[in-house]
Amino acid sequence: MKKKEIHIDRNKVVISIHDLYKSFGSNHVLRGIDLDIYQGENVVVLGRSGTGKSVLIKLIAGLLRPDRGTINVLGKDVAALSYRELEQFRLKIGFSFQSSALYDSMTVRENLEFPLLRNSKHLSRQQVTQAVEAALDAVGLSQTINQWPAELSGGQRKRIGIARTLIMQPAVMLYDEPTAGLDPITSTEINDLINKVQEEFNTTSIIITHDLTCAKSTGNRIAVLLDGHFVQVGSFDTIFENGDERVKSFYNYNFITQ
Known about the structure:
Blueprint (H helix, E strand, L loop, with lengths): L8 E16 L2 E13 L2 E5 L6 H8 L7 E6 L2 E2 L5 H8 L2 E4 L11 H12 L5 H14 L15 H13 L5 E5 L7 H18 L2 E6 L2 H7 L2 E6 L2 E6 L1 H6 L3 H11 L3
Parallel strand pairs: 3-8, 3-9, 6-7, 7-8
Antiparallel strand pairs: 1-2, 1-4, 4-5, 9-10
């Protein structure tokens, strides 16, 4: 699927990262990064394993605290939020885990109902059912509603994980290696779904990956993270046409050596 033109409101910054540092002992993972992400935009953070991509989205979600710098999301200084404020804040953040993070002891229906029953207790049983069915329809898996996670393929589990996130109608989506471990055809389906979520739900998203096909298919902009810094930020074509050998190595690995 060719990525459609999306309206991105560059007058509205949804995620603002400034002078961000994070270390674990002597391992200096993030070393002063800056990035603004706009309303309706998909930004891909591209980097090798261990460069701090997943650390970055955990900081954005308030799962980790920075050593220095600021992360402002939806008008909130994430590091300054109290525990109770973080709980409310995270209801607006959709986190698609690499593992899908489904509960194996629950059916698909129960997995999707869980966040609603926990956080939207005012909803009637009919409203919960309607929300579950709508979320499953959005990811094209209505037929799985009574299945168990163990009965699903890896790609289906990814889709159900995204559906469970969408059911809370988040303003921001964080995707952690969404195509990891998937075959090329299923990866393409997940990439198309990420674009569909952007188009239909008007989300602002960060997509963590080292898969260039995913990056090219889903990203309005690419931010290349190396040695704790964003060394390039721009469109896919701009990033890979500028001759930077540090960035070119990604292209060679993904599209030449495989």
